[in-house]
Write a structure and sequence with these properties.
Blueprint (H helix, E strand, L loop, with lengths): L7 E7 L5 H11 L4 E4 L2 E5 L3 H15 L4 E6 L5 H32 L6 H21 L3 H30 L1
Helix pairs in contact: 1-2, 3-4, 3-5, 4-5
């Protein structure tokens, strides 16, 4: 099923470096509703524009920080390219998430510490959000397969890590 980009919009923001609280709050809330195309550009279903306007206003008010934000509606002139970019972005985000967890596991093993349950749960939450975006955007099944592969890899790595750390602590 192809994405009909005439029903999608782009959210672009520019947040000064000293407004990091606003950046992280926006990223957290927007990532459940949109696919990040790069650090400050997101593709979202146009029907969620009012919701995103509210999220942005709420984050600015909660943090007392400001940003330049633009929300633009797409036309249907380059649908295939936008779908390709959205798919690649979602796959990249999913693989990067798995890679970051593996790096945390390696550091934890060096220190003979266990990777926190909180971080593992955050990875799972973000994988679930990615699955939701696959459905929301009507993207193809191969992305779901890639997400599940990352999930299984993460589970196996965390289990192996916890086994190693448990043996090291008990030795």
């Amino acid at each position: 099923m192809a994405v009909n980009v005439s029903e999608f919009g782009i959210l672009i923001y520019d947040i000064p470096q000293n407004n990091s609280r606003l950046y992280y709050q926006l990223r957290s809330k927007i990532s459940r509703r949109a696919i990040r195309m790069n650090l400050s550009v997101w593709l979202f279903p146009w029907g969620q524009k009012a919701d995103l306007d509210g999220v942005i206003a709420e984050a600015k008010k909660a943090t007392g920080q400001s940003a330049t934000v633009a929300i633009l509606k797409f036309d249907n002139s380059d649908q295939a390219e936008i779908e390709r970019i959205a798919r690649e972005s979602l796959l990249r985000e999913t693989h990067d998430l798995g890679k970051r967890l593996m790096e945390r596991v390696a550091v934890a093993e060096e220190k003979c510490k266990e990777v926190s349950d909180r971080y593992v749960k955050e990875v799972e939450r973000r994988l679930q959000a990615a699955e939701g975006l696959v459905v929301l955007f009507g993207l193809t099944h191969d992305i779901s397969v890639a997400i599940e592969a990352v999930r299984e890899s993460v589970r196996a790595e965390v289990q192996a890590h916890r086994s190693k750390v448990g043996k090291a602590v008990n030795a």
